[in-house]
User: What shape does this take?
Amino acid sequence: MPAPIDLLVHVTHEAGVKIGGIGAVLDGLLGAQAYQEAISRSIIVGPFDRYNSGEMESLFDAHNGLRLRYAPGYGIDFLPPDLSSQFHSIEVAFGVTLLYGTRPFRGVEHEVLLVDVNHIHPDRAGSFRYFLWDKFGLDCARYDYDPEFRRFVNLAEPAYAALYHLAAGVAGPRVILAHEWMGLPLAFASMMHDPALWRTAFYAHEVATARLLVEENPGHDTRFYNALWLARSQGLNVDAVFGDQSYYYKHALLQRAVFCDAILAVGDLVVEELRFLGGPYIYRPIDLVYNGVPSFPVSLDEKKYSKGLLQTYASNLLGNTPDFIFTHVTRFVTSKGLWRDLRVLRHLDAMLAAANKSAVLFVVSSYDPAGRSAAQVHAWEEQYGWPVGHRADNGDLHGLEVDFFFHGLDPFNQGSRATKAILFNQFGWSHDRCGQRMPAEMTFMDLRKGADVEFGQSIYEPFGIAQVEPLSFGAICVPSNVCGCVGFLDRVSGGVDQLRNVVVADYVSPPADWHFGSPWDALRVDTYGRDLIEIANSRRVAETIASRLPLTDAESQALLECGQEVGSRMSWEVVARDYLAPALAGAITRPR
Assistant: This one.
């Protein structure tokens, strides 16, 4: 393992509270023993908004574990007098509020620095904007209409000032790791003030330009990736194929991430997407640092117990006990491709009916991240049988949930024979959050342990932790071939097509009689063309799943053993030791 780094600073919007993907990454990495061996000290830096009641409630929730050492507004100051005085001076000079303390990441305490920039002095913010223009050619005035952009640009200098004092006395290597575009302004601030003190690294958890182009065109991944591969083979970049993308502030910041000492990418396709941006990305070294997969021993009896709870719940909801439990745990956004689950189920339904078997799909996803109140769910359960039934006129269904339920899931259920799908648009998987019909002893881990199949056929998925979380519990995981986890699976298994636990859905490869000579041919793929591919290829996915569903304990045990073996090679310990540590060592040693 490379020599330890004395200080690693993570910059992210999830510094104070775990919200989504990057929060899961921080939990996985910072809690790993291999990480502790490679990194002597960590500080996680990000913004907070003291006027956002929901955010502050989450921040100070006992389960979050935040232990403050500096928060004068709350009467808390346990810092040495010199450091306390320096923090106070920063607050006055910039017009910001600082919070500093620790919080646990998978049981391991790390330092956290949070900055509220709601009232930052305009003159201080303006000087940094001039630096970004003069040094990097970034015209902040063009993007200041976006509050998220303003927030992270304004965060940079006061956060760096506080960080400078926290890092006093650090003699060895120190690195600022910018998680996504949000961390770049702080990395740039270190270049502005003390370039000799710091090395910087950019961690691409996605490529925002690519996500936008995939999500906002009905041809989705089928269109985009065929255009990308053809363009790359012909030496063309994203602007040449899709037009000038500089209007998009995330794209503008991504183009300037090349000024960092190292570039990290979460998946193989993310590397290709970065190269597609053109310019220095074409030749810059890019280090793969995959996400990890939770992996711990589970016996077949434990799996059967969890599956039994899920079957009991399904019986309480539907009146019959399914043979198989399918799940899809995800965020309710376009990129997750939820309609593809129903395409596969339409084929599987006929296959299961012919075999005299049955299944239920639990779609666990909420358009509203906070979910619904327990009182609302219990009332809807009594009134119209939530979650089997839903309404859109009473606060139940929101946003994308409305179309998915009324034009996808409900019509499917009305016509299916052996398979039903249920939408749980609630945050939290427990009796108190999901109603009286859920077994009282149910926990979220039962949902992961008890699943026979986990769907995840995304149209854009830089990695996809959720797609492979149930892998080590013996589930058959069904990611699409654009999910970054497929590259990791392929690497650790010697060939993902050899794994009975994984069915890779390909909705990108065109039929043999489609001829794309240039990227502009691929740009003609629309909803109709993508539908043709999805209808045909979803049958192949269904056939493969049907052939691998376990019918005996011996088959379930074989899937469990295979999943645990592969999962152990994809753990956060492996990621921290074999991917992150060498990549950060490169940031320190690579010549500037």
